[in-house]
Specification:
heterodimer, A: 377 residues, mainly alpha, two-stranded antiparallel sheet, 14 helices, 2 strands, 64% helix, B: 129 residues, Serine Threonine Protein Phosphatase 5, Tetratricopeptide repeat, 83% helix
């Protein structure tokens, strides 16, 4: 369980005074955690690997194959290693036995992380080092907590549930996308909670369809409700990048290759913004998009169509695996959906700590789902 | 399976060393502003190298800045600001034709680069005088 706690705590890792748009302290922490998880996985007894592990290995192998198209090897290595760390975390957690109370503690820790990240914003504004993305952590935390609390019919738990929900809505209000996804996931949670049938296959398929078609549809509208939507313009250019590189540009290469396409199908206004470093030597330069702000588009651009199909299969296997969506599984499941939904407008799966959070939750879900049996057996 | 995992282990160790290197570089820039030292510590981080090149340009060491900017462009070929500065360095070193070719190339791919456009106009103006 220590891996799960550390993965969640990684959201708070930062160095005061270090302005890092790349979340470098978090990246180093997650890589070290992944290393520890890998060592644990290597020491597991030799058993038959489940199908999902084979898909993961195929995805990694294909990502390594993209080495031929790479320009910046340092970023490639870093991105690939993060993927390995995520997979190692998933394997380490999915092969560990957990009690229901462990999952409860995990949700409680998520709430603590969200509150700590929220409070830290007053002391360390962005240019002084970012402790954590509290809005999204709060969303994640509250969803899990809500599901856990729903299991109890106590009046006080109901009050607590309302307080948590209020905190959540106030926190995620800073992001329209997060709020929208949150509302959708909460509706879905209610449907799952009220339905006796196991909907995991339908939800998995529906989620993949929504994730795939959302950027394609949204990118057609650059000014919905007369408000500019820069993401739509960016996605059009990313689609041009994909059309030019169907085999992918290589892991971690998005920020290197995107400026070439920033004018391909639409003029990306964010590429005109000037960034000024807040510390000496006070240098200004144009913003470089470090991510596509859509997880699936970025994976398709970096890993190519084959990598994208493998990743889609991976997501389907993770989301369709639960045999029932009750109790601890429901909380974990909707947290995964929240992260994936948020990935329509952001890049949680490419981010070191949110990626680690996703693989941790997926690993816990598998472990709980296998009825606490060792996944490798 | 274990061979694959061992291979993964070595990849992660290598990346961890690289990330710590980058982290040290960014920390030095953030706390001391010493981009030259940071550039020596993290020679694979194009943003740190870009900062180093700007410091070198400010110190009127365009010969050093050209080397650094060429390193930046090798690992981030579409970093227009680095290319623009390379043009400035060549112009300062007395190679206006080379500088002009660089700015024209930037504007061909990214027509909204105001500085490259202004530099191009300035060099044309100077030559017409």
């Amino acid at each position: 369980m220590l891996f799960a706690y550390l993965a969640i705590a990684s959201n708070l890792v930062f160095i005061p005074g270090l302005f890092d748009g790349h979340d470098l302290p978090k990246k180093v922490f997650v890589l070290a955690l992944g290393l520890a998880a890998l060592i644990r996985v290597i020491h597991l007894p030799k058993t038959k690997s489940p199908f999902i592990y084979c898909v993961m290995m195929a995805y990694l192998t294909f990502s390594i194959f993209n080495l031929f198209f790479v320009v910046n090897y340092s970023l490639f290595l870093e991105r690939l290693s993060l993927d390995i760390a995520f997979i190692a975390l998933y394997m380490a957690l999915s092969t560990t036995k957990f009690e229901e109370k462990d999952i409860g503690l995990f949700h409680a820790l998520l709430v603590l992380v969200a509150v700590a990240a929220c409070l830290s914003q007053s002391y360390w504004p962005e240019e002084k080092g970012v402790m954590g993305n509290y809005g999204f952590t709060a969303g994640l935390a509250a969803l899990g907590a809500l599901s856990a609390l729903s299991l109890s019919s106590s009046f006080w738990f109901a009050i607590l549930e309302i307080v948590v929900a209020a905190f959540l809505i106030l926190s995620v209000f800073q992001s329209r996308a997060a709020l929208g996804v949150l509302i959708l996931v909460m509706i879905l949670r209610m449907i799952i909670f009220e339905t006796k049938r196991n909907l995991s296959h339908i939800i998995a398929l529906g989620t993949l369809i929504i994730l795939f078609f959302s950027p394609l549809i949204i990118s057609q509208f650059d000014r919905p409700f007369n408000r500019p939507l820069n993401r739509a313009l960016q996605w059009r250019n990313v689609l041009a990048m994909i059309a030019d590189n169907p085999l992918g540009i290589g892991a971690g290469q998005f920020q290197i290759q995107y400026p070439k396409y920033a004018n391909a199908r639409a003029r990306d206004p964010e590429m005109l913004e000037i960034i000024e470093t807040v510390v000496p030597p006070n240098i200004s330069y144009r913003g470089q998009h470090e991510a596509a702000h859509n997880d699936l588009l970025e994976i398709m651009a970096e890993r190519g169509v084959v990598g994208f199909v493998l990743f889609g299969l991976l997501l389907f296997l993770i989301l369709s695996s639960p045999k029932s969506l009750t109790g601890a599984q429901l909380g974990l499941y909707i947290e995964l959906l929240f992260l994936l939904g948020w990935g329509i407008f952001w890049f949680p799966l490419a981010h070191p700590t949110f990626g680690a959070t996703f693989s941790t939750i997926a690993g816990l879900l598998r472990s709980v789902n296998e009825d606490r049996a060792r996944a490798l057996s | 399976m274990k061979i694959v995992l061992a291979l993964c282990l070595s990849i992660v160790v290598l990346a961890l060393v690289g990330s710590v290197e980058r982290l040290r570089g960014h920390y030095i820039v953030s706390t001391t502003g010493n981009a030259i030292r940071a550039g020596h510590i993290a020679p694979h981080d194009y943003k740190i190298l870009f900062m180093k090149s700007v410091v070198e340009m400010r110190g009127e060491r365009c010969d050093l800045a050209i080397d650094t900017l060429n390193q930046v462009i090798a690992i981030a070929p579409y970093f227009w600001d680095a290319r623009n500065n390379l043009g400035i360095c060549y112009a300062a070193m007395g190679a206006p034709n080379h500088a002009k070719a660089i700015w024209q190339e930037i504007l061909k791919e990214w027509p909204w680069h105001k500085e490259a456009s202004a530099n191009l106009q300035e060099i044309d103006r100077q030559r017409s005088e």
